[in-house]
Amino acid sequence: MKRFTNTIFLFSIAFQWCYSQCIQPELMDQPGVVCQGIVDPVCGCDGNTYPNSCYAELFNGVAYWTPGACSCQTDPLTAEIEAVSQTDNFGCTYITSLVIHITGNTPPSSDWGYEWNDGFRGPNLPDPIPGQYYEVTITNEEQCTTVEGIFIPDATCECVPPSNFSEEVQTDPTKVRIMWDETPGATKYQMRYKQNGEDWMTKTVFTPYTIIGNLNIHKHHKYKIRSWCQGVWSAWSTPEHFVATDCPFPLQSSTAVQTDGSILVQWDEILGATDYEILYRLSGSTGSFTKQLSGGDTQINLDNLNDGATYEYRLRSFCSTTFGALSTPFYFTYLSNLRLTQPDGFIFGKIYPVPSKDELTLEFSLEEENEVTLSIINTMGMSVMEETGKYFEGGHYKQLNISHLEPGFYLLNIKYGKRIITKRFLKIKD
Asked: Which domains does the chain have, with CATH numbers?
């Protein structure tokens, strides 16, 4: 019992000594000194929170203090940054915003309590830039403070094989240009191709098209392609088949609505072709194409179409005993309320040169002054150039500057009143 009493006595002496070191009355005896009403809390050595250090010293004699309210020490302000991500239609995942979650103490009462290193204030930072480091300083009403940071990585894309392939016979029939839709995030492609019964040959390209040569005419060939994205190869595409032939497909085609509501599709005649086949389906569909022979004509009527729907169609020629390669897609939109009851006064001439380098010339004539819209569409279906102008009656030679376009196939849409004419052309390098 005596030992316990001595322990209490010693603890009491130690506490009184510590308190005498913490609270020093002489600090309060400073005539003429006035404390301003600044709210900048401090935690005194006596365990009490004061509005600022001046009040702690001059009004209470507190010799030692630390910044922030005492609760900042007993219950520190802590937070986490959540990186909110989103995946787009192409399989690419990227961070769209940064959200602050307070995990300790109380959150700030306003956006001004969150100060980011890029100048933004608030708990939700929108559209962070990939490759940047973001840091936020968080301060609540009790002046408790914490600093959190996060690095924003580049978007990651699921690496998928290419799709939507087409083959184009070249001037030299032993060569074929193969084209496909660009894979998002891909920086190169690898192709394997062969004639049936032979070994695969491999080539790597950095564009969504390539030309393969030394093909045997009228022989079956196959190829498959994969994409390279961020250091990873995708799976191989499903093998595609074609027959090397000296029977090219039509390069230009146009459509027009007829008085009976059908669509008239027309195309250029191919020397040596005895028939043509059109394959069409709803644009964006993965279903089968509807096939129809033209009976040797360079035009065909399509009916029983869905009003307001956009269709994709391809053409190929029949020479001797076999079909040639399929063309790249053409497109038209069927609108039944645009049926023509009289000639529209627009006469198409031609476009040249094909292929083109820097300029494309369009020849046409009008029976009366009217407005004409010209637009160029890339293979992804995106408009890359458009202009509308009013043209007087008579013939016209319209020159289009295409020097800024990347090499490849494009569609030229000519819109006059209710009619849209589509012509395809190839842009080549200088």
From this structure: 78-156 (2.60.40), 166-243 (2.60.40.10), 247-336 (2.60.40.10), 342-430 (2.60.40.1930)
